[in-house]
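Hi L., both proteins are below.
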Amino acid sequence: MAQRVDCGWLTVPESRSATTGKHLRLWVAIARAPIGTRRADAILYLHGGPGIGTVDTWFPFFPDGVAWRAFRETRDIVFFDQRGTGRSQPVLCPSLAADLAQVERTATNPSPRLEATVAAYAKCRQALVSNGVSLSAYRSQETVEDAEDLRVALGVPAWNIYGTSYGSFVALQYLRAHPASIRAEILDSPYPPNAATWAEQVTTTARAYEALERACHRSNDCASRFPDIRARLIEAVKRLDAHPIPRPEGAINGGVFVGALWPMLVRTRSALFVPLAIDLAASGDDATVRRLVSIYGGGGSFGDYSHAQAMAINCHEGGRTTLPTREALLRYPYLAGNDLAEGVDRICAAFQPVLAAPSQFAPVASDKPVLVYSGEFDPATPTEDVWNTTRFLARSTVVQVPGASHSPFYTDACTRGIAHAFLSAPDSAPDTRCLEKRVLAAFPLQGMDAFLKSLEEKK
C-alpha cells in the first residue's frame, strides 16, 4: 500500500471559557486510505500518556506495522499531537526534562530528590505564568474540544475512535460531550473517569506481578525455573539497595530497577522477559541490570514526552494520592521505588493544585458500539477498570486477552482481527472465538542478551 501522509496545523483557541484571543497550533498527520476504497468515517487515534507526543512517537513504526494495515485499506487514520506535546505549539517548559534528569543524577535520597523535583515544577509553573500561559487550558476536556474542531475541519461526519490507555479517558469524555460525532469506539486498556486506579498504581502493579506469576506457572518449565517471582524481586531490590550500581546518570538501586521494570512489564513482548530479568538481577548480574535501566529507565522510554503537560492533566484529574499510596506501600514495600508516598501531592500543590469538578469523574453512559480490550498482566489499567468502563455502555463488548499486557489489541492476528470485524460492522457482536484457540507465547528461560541487543539496535 502506498504510504501517503498529509501533515499540517490545526489552530485552536487556548481557552473556550474565556475570550483571550490566544491560539494554539496542533500538529496533525493523516495516514490516507486509497481514494478508491476510502470511507468518510475516518479513525481518530488517541495516544496514551498523558504527555506523549503522538506523531513522532508513532510514525517511525507506522510504515512497516501490521496492526493498522487493514484499517487503512478503507479509512484515513488521523493523529494529532495534543496541546503541550510533540510538535504542537507552544512547547511547555522545554527545560523541565533536563531539570528533572539533573535531579536524578544528583539527588540520591528520596527526601532531597522530592524537594528538588517540587522546585523544578514550581520553576516551570512560574515560567508559564510569566509567559501568560494558562494551565487551565491543558486538560482532557480541552483535548476533547480540539478533537471535535479537527473533525469539523476535516469534514468527517462521525469518528471511529481508537483510544489506548489515557487516550481512552479522552475518548470516553468525548463520547459524553459529543455523542453524535462518534460512530464507534475501540478502547484498548481503558482508563475510565470513574476508575479507582487514578488514586495510586502500586496495588495495580502488585496485582500485575501476581498475574504474571500465575501465567508463568501454567507451564511446568517456567514454574520450575521461576517458582516465586515476587520473592526474587524482593531479593533483587534488597541486593541493589545494599550495593547500588554506580553510573554517571545516577546510581542504580532497588527503586531505580523497579522503576525500569514497569515499562518493561507494560509491553506484552518485553513482559515475558520480566521473570528472567528479575532472576538475573537477584543473582547479581549487574551488567544486565545496567542495560535494562538504560533502555527502560526514565521518561523517554515511551518516546517524546512532555512532563509539564502530563502533570498538568494528572494533577487536575488524578485526585490526591498520598493516603492510598501510603497504605498500598505497607502491603507492597518492595514497590516503593525512590519516591515518597506524598510525592505526587507535593508536586501538584506546587504546579497545578486545582482539581476537576466531581462531575468529570462520573461514569460515561452511552448506547454507541464500544469494543473494550483488557490484558491479563497489565500494570496500568486492571480488569476493574474494564468493568467500571462498561457499567453504563449498553452496547459494549469486552475482549479479555490471556498472555497479554497493556494495549492488547496489538498482540496477534486474532486480537487485531476482532477489532477489524467490529469496525466493519459495529452493530453486530464481534466473533471472539479465536481467543480460545490462541497459542500463548512462552516465557523465555534464557536469551536476555539477544533480546536486549535487539532493543539497543533500534534506539
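That was the first. Here is the second:
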Amino acid sequence: MAISGLYPEFDTRRGAYVSRCGRGGAPIRVAGNGAKVTAIPSPPTGGDRFAAPPGSDFEIRVDDGEKRRSYTVRCLPADFPQWRFEPVGDPSPGLFVVSFRATPREKAWVIVFDHEGVPRWWYSPETHVLWAQILSDGIVSLARSFGDGYGLDARMAHEIRSLSGDLIRLVRTRGSLTDGHELHELPNGNFLLASYAPDPRVELRTVAAWTKRRPPDRAAVVFAEIQEVGRGGRVAWRWNSRGRIALGETGRWWRSVLVNPKSSRFGETFDPVHINSIEPHGPNRLVISTRHTDAVYGIDRSSGRIIWKLGGKETAKSLRVIDDPAGKLFGGPHDARIGPDGRLTILDNGKGRPRLPRVVSYRLDLARGTATYLGQLTDPRVTSSHCC
C-alpha cells in the first residue's frame, strides 16, 4: 500500500503527516493492495482522493484484514511557506521551534517541527516575531516586536498562546522597558525576563575617549535589568547592571551603542550593556550574556554581586582563560548557557573580530578562577554574524 501527497513520504511506521491537500501540491492518493482505507472525519472526495480544509486534521485508517493502522494528517494553510529539512546524524525524538519572516513584506511565522522535520504546530501573528519557544506545559510563547530595534515600543511583550492559537496572557516587566531577548521559565512557574531601565541624565564624560564624537556631559542611558515575574505580573526579584557593570567595560562598543532616537522618548539614548540571555546556574546564581561588553557574567542572586566575568575588558572578577585559540575572546556574544555538568556554551558572534562566528564551550573552575577551552563549532559558509 502507498499513500502519496504527504510529507514526509508515507511509511507504515510513521504516524503523523502534513499535506497541501491538493492546494498548491499533489492531492492525497491511496494505492492499496486490497486494504480498506477510510478517512475520518472527511469522506473521500471520489475514487482514491481525499480532501480536507486547510488547518484541519483527519485520520486515515488502513485495514488489511489482519491489522488496523491509523495515520494522522493535517492540511497546511494555502500560504504555508516552503521548507527543507536535513537531519544531522540520528536526531533524538523531540520538537524545535523556528520563527522567521522571509522578507520585510511577508508575514511572520512561528512553526514547531518534530525531529523528522514535520510541522506539528504553526501560527502567523500580526506583529514581527523575535523568537519563540515551547513551555513546560506544551503551549508556546513568542516575543512579539514592532520593528523598533529592541523593545522600546510600549506594546512589547511575550505572548503565551494555546495550541489553538488563542492568546492566554502577556508577560511584561514592570517599571522598565520589556525586551524580547529572553523569557526563561523557572520551576516555580515564574519567568526571568530581560529589560531596559532608562535614566535620562547619566554622567558620560568618563567615556568620551571611546566615542566617535564627544558625548554630552549627561545623556540618556538604558541599563540592563533582569526581572523575575510571576503570574499577575508581580515582580518577585530584580537586578540592575547600574553600579555593577561599569560604563568603562563597554570599551570599543561606545562607538556604536547610540540607539535610534526615533525609538526612545528621551531622544539620543546610549545602550552600553545590551543583555541578551539569562541562564540559571545552581540554586542562587545566574549567567548572563551582554553584547556591548563582549562578555559573560556570573551573578549572585542574593547580593546582586558579579562573582565572575569571562571576556571583555579585564576586571577584578575576570576568569583566566586556558587554551582558547581566539586572541580576542568574544565579539558581541549571545546565548550563554550552562549545563548540569558545568559546561558553559556561548554563541560568540565574532563581531569585529578577525575570525568566523563560533559556538564555543568552556569548563569553569571558580575556585581557581579559570575557564578552560573545550572546543568550538564553526561553519565556513557563515563568515559574519552581526547580532543574532
